[in-house]
Amino acid sequence: NRAELRTVMAMALPAVITTSTRAAMDVADFIMVARLPTEDAQAAILPAQVVMWSYIVFGLGVVTMVNTFAAQALGRKKESECSAYAWQGIYVSVFFGLLASLVIGLVPGVVIWIGHEPGVQANEIAYMKVALLTTGPTLIAEGLGWFFIGIHKPRIPMWTALEAIVLNVIVAGALIFGWFGLPSMGIAGAAWGTLVAVCYRMVRLALAFLSPAIQNVYRTRDTWRPSFSRMANLFRVGIPCGLQFTSEVVVWAIFVNLLIGKRFGTHHLIATNAAWQYMRVAFMPTLGAGRALTALVGKSIGEGNPARAKRETRIAAVVTTLYMLVLSLTYLFFGEQLILLMTRSEDAARIGRSVMVCAAVFQLFDAWAITYTASLRGAGDTFIPSIFFVASHWLII
Questions:
Q1: Residue 156 and residue 261: Cα distance in Å, rounded?
Q2: pLDDT tens sequence across 228-255
Q3: What confidence score (pLDDT) does residue 225 get?
């Protein structure tokens, strides 16, 4: 009915913006790096980002479950339980952030093993060493953001996301190109800009989380104690999701770094990098709508109303399918022109046209997979979807 459609859209639109925050930062970084005088940085940024995300996404899969448990607790009218899970998400995020400091030491060896051209390698190392420092702040911000979406207050993380995107463009641009008298750092400046932006967003969300208005209802200042049972719940439901995310990113890391970068070369890397930015425009908003659906389904399940959860899922599936259909047709007919907006290389645009045709085909199926997986996640089922995703990654891709 119309009321349920309005509810889904009211949750989905802010969640789309929230979920797209890091993707928007990465796309902005790519566009700015593409304006540097050499092509090495433009060829390096996607391989570096994919390797970086290969580590971050496992933790992301775990802290995302704050959304599910907060939404279900909200449905059961246990408001303090919502914030208790948010605190456990913070502790999990700190653990992954500290572990990232050890991972940074492996970066040069990994890049050398991948074996891109020397100029590309230097840029990959410069970017990844800084970008991995964003692990802790990114995960804390994501966990707090999904707490707010889980309690059906999606506008709070939405506004912090928009602020962080603007800050990233300003700081990254200043450090990449040397604006305002600052040193020109090239691709490393893009990573530093992202670090500043995610730290800002983390602080903004923490202040909102501890604010009197949220404290009065959800007791956010009183539920800070570590709870191993709740942490175990996050890992129990989140590990399959984290493995699914990691599997997907690792497969694409192999695809981009070893197949394209090593066997084909720099222009093919640039073409894939450019096409990837448009694919993010497609699947990140769909992922955001899916996260909103997780919160809606979780609340419906918590209230003992599975029939409403099914209706909300159908509505979300129709919306994401229509969105992906429009983008697929755009990619199909205007792929080469879109690639040329991202790069000055005509060779890369010619190669990228074929990549965009592939994207146009698979995006509709991606919409259905994301939507129904998100619905099952709201009900607490992450195991079966993860098996299907991991099998498709390694047996098909």
A1: 40
A2: 999 999 998 888 888 888 888 888 777 7
A3: 94
